[in-house]
Amino acid sequence: MVIACFIQGAYLLELDRQEKRDERTGLAPQWWRPFKYKLAQVLVDERDGSIYGAVLEWDHQAALSDYIPFRPTRAPAAVVPLRGTLLRAPTFRRDVVDDLRFLAWDSLKGSVRFAGALAALRDAARRFGVGNVCVGGHSLGAGFALQVGKALAKERVFVECHVFNPPSVSLAMSLRGFVETAGELWGRARGWIPYVGSQPAADTSGGNTGHSESEARASLAQSGMGRWLPYLYINTNDYICCHYSDAAGGTATVAVDSGGGNGGGKAGVATMLVVSKGPSKFLAAHGLEQWWADDVELQVALNHSKLIDRQLRSLYAAPPAALRARS
Q1: For the chain, what are the domain ranges?
Q2: Per CATH, is 2-193+223-255+270-316 categorized as 3.30.420?
Q3: Which of 68, 172, 233, 300 lies most in the core, judged by the most C-beta atoms within 10 Å?
Q4: Which domain of life does the protein's organism represent (predicted)?
């Protein structure tokens, strides 16, 4: 709920800029000051000057004035909230360009905002430590938060990530899903076709693949990798993010460090929280305000998500060279 409030503050930073409200009359600070945070940096899109995010830091002086000598447990020292699309004239063009970028390519890496958010998050992790930094986003901002967090995870920098109503529909993702489905169907069809000759090549390759995957997972567990597991907040009545709830036969099982520091790990998956009692109409179901409502009821999704599986698979798959060496 607190991260959702910080993201609302990121929305209002841009609206304050458009309405020419200053620090005294601005609405945005009301969404982080009660939690004893302060604005350390605004993330500005150099293409149109719009604000798409911020860096908030724990305000020790404000906390002391309310007799709070220490930062609460698990409260991050720095938070990077990223807003979603604002359908207003000053921001419409650039926001929609990034929306179309994701729709076409399932990637936001070519955006100026991706580079800016990645640099801000990397700098915060360097100054405060990886375990004291969090990134969050809503809608388009959730897409940026997921991809920025994944980019840092590839550098073995595992920051906490909370995403609300992340986009789940893109042409590239649909094509990948079609290719994967076609591959599965072709594999089944090959199993039905009588093979004339020696041992089928499909059996050999299939055996090696399964053996390699199991060994790769064991190797990941020994190395203690896989500590980046995002938190996703989904309303199934939201057409933009509802496909995250599509069940898969398996899941991206990764090795999560048990905290002992000895390299032993345990299996884990990303946490997906789904609204069990909330808005049912699309606009409200995609809205951010549902996530801080007093009557919101959430449940941890028990099914395995196809989209999470695809997104984490590339992150935690063993390098191709290692797979070839093991096979």
Answers
A1: 2-193+223-255+270-316
A2: no
A3: 233
A4: Eukaryota
Using alpha carbons, select from 119, 123, 148 the residue that is nearest to residue 135: 148
Least confident segment among 167-171, 261-265, 283-287: 261-265
Structure tokens at 83: 């807003």
Q: Which amino acid is at 74?
A: R
Q: What is the mean pLDDT of residues 216-243?
A: 69
**Measuring CA to CA, how many Å separate 180 from each of 191, 207, 230, 317, 320?**
17, 19, 24, 16, 19
Rounded to whole angstroms, how far apart are CA atoms 196 and 166?
49
Tokens standing for 191? 């199993």
Model confidence at 54, in pLDDT bands (50, 70, 90)?
very high
Residue type, 68: I
Report the predicted TM-score, pTM, of the whole model to 2 decimal places.
0.76
Mapping DSSP to helix (H, G, I), strand (E, B) and coil, where does residue 30 land? helix
